[in-house]
Amino acid sequence: MNRKITDHISATFSKKTIAIAAIVCIVIVFIAGILISNTFRTLFSGEPIIEEVQTVSATLLEERIRELSELITLIYNYRDVVFIDEYTQLAGLRLPGTRATITMVYDGAMRMGVDLALASVRIDGSVITIGLPAAQIVAHEIGNEEIKDERTGLFNRIDVPEYLEYVQERRQEMRERVVELGLLDQAQENARIQVGTFIVSLLDMVGTEERFEVRFIEV
Question: How far apart are CA 214 and CA 184, in angstroms?
Answer without folding.
Answer: 22
